[in-house]
Structures are given as C-alpha cells and as structure tokens.
Design brief:
four-stranded antiparallel β-sheet; two-stranded antiparallel sheet; Arylsulfatase, C-terminal domain; alpha+beta; globular
Length: 104
C-alpha cells in the first residue's frame, strides 16, 4: 500500500486540535477525520484516529493494525502538517511596486 495523497485542513485550535488530515492509499482508499494535535510535552504534533462514543463506550472507526502502516501514515501526515501549519510566506525583494518617479 502506498500513500498517494495527504490533505491537511487547519482549524481554529481547540483543546490542542489544530488540523484535520486525510490520506489516500493507492488512489483507491480514502481515510479521513484524522486529528492533528499539538504534543502535550514539547514541540511538534501527534495524530489520532476517529472514534465514536455510544453509551459511554468508545469505538474505533478505523486505525492501522500493522506498525509499518501506522508509521507511514504518521510520517506522511506530520510532514505535511508541519509544512502547512508552520508555513511562512517568503518575502521577496524582487517586487518593486509602484513608483512615482519617471524619466522626462
């Protein structure tokens, strides 16, 4: 299985949740609603998979079973999340802008 797409949607931070992620495997399987949270201890981010609560019990909607798949999803999501959430537009000195001077 190969991750062919990762999407990160930043949201207004709430209880550490800063973005929602999704991944696509082999252009065929979409897994969404992956939570991107700030780490509780130290810098960086962590991910959580969706759950459903019913009668006081939590049920996993989905989660990776194999460690290799879990690590691949985590690497892909966190790499993209860091790029999106820490994006700083580059300032350029190439833009001159409007000038009131002219040659006569």
């Amino acid at each position: 299985m190969t991750i062919t797409e990762v999407q990160i949607v930043p949201i207004k931070a709430q209880d550490g949740l800063v973005a929602i992620a999704s991944v696509v495997f082999d252009n065929s399987l979409f897994l969404g609603s992956i939570g991107v949270y700030t780490k509780r201890n130290g810098p960086g981010y962590r991910i959580t998979y969706p759950t459903k609560s019913n009668s006081g019990r939590n049920f996993n909607i989905y989660h990776p079973i194999r460690r290799e798949v879990s690590e691949a999803i985590e690497r892909a999501v966190l790499s993209k999340a860091e790029a999106v959430l820490n994006y700083q537009p580059q300032r350029s000195n190439d833009y001159v802008g409007h000038s009131n001077t002219y040659n006569s």
